[in-house]
Specification:
Elements lengths: L15 E4 L2 H11 L12 H6 L2 H8 L5 E12 L8 E16 L2 E13 L5 E14 L1
Antiparallel strand pairs: 1-3, 2-5, 3-4, 4-5
């Protein structure tokens, strides 16, 4: 039941690593329609915040009756991520609050996410909000 998410505040996902190679960057820039030559050596900042969201989704979508919607993203960028960098994502559930709606129960889950490069230098800090709904 998604109401159990409220009790998971403080839960840390296992760290995830992503190699920022040309293929990944090219797929992302094509998907968002940004073919700037700048992205030949540097990763678009918005790519960083998309890394690992599939794992967050898997954590939240516990059954077919659960829907996950991206609610908000707040990002503080520290340094550009370059092609060839390995970015590590560390995420934890910062908070979760439940609300009853006409269609069921919705839990607002806030994640604090830290991205660092292979030298341990901060790339970005992010807070993402996901709305998790279970239809009754």
């Amino acid at each position: 039941m998604i109401s159990e998410l409220k009790d998971r505040a403080g839960y840390e996902l296992p760290p995830l690593e992503f190699e920022l190679e040309k293929g990944l960057i090219s797929k992302f820039t094509e998907a968002v329609g940004d073919d700037s030559q700048r992205w030949q050596t540097e990763a678009p900042p918005s790519l960083i915040t998309a890394l690992g969201f599939d794992k967050v989704y898997e954590l939240l979508a516990s059954s077919e009756k659960v829907a996950v919607l991206h609610g908000a993203t707040e990002v503080e960028f520290h340094s550009p991520a370059k092609m060839g960098d390995t970015v590590t994502m560390k995420a934890k559930i910062a908070s979760a609050r439940e609300r009853r709606t006409a269609t069921g129960v919705t839990v607002f889950v806030n994640f604090d996410i830290c991205y660092t490069n292979q030298r341990g230098e901060p790339v970005a800090n992010c807070r993402q909000t996901a709305l998790v709904t279970q239809n009754e």
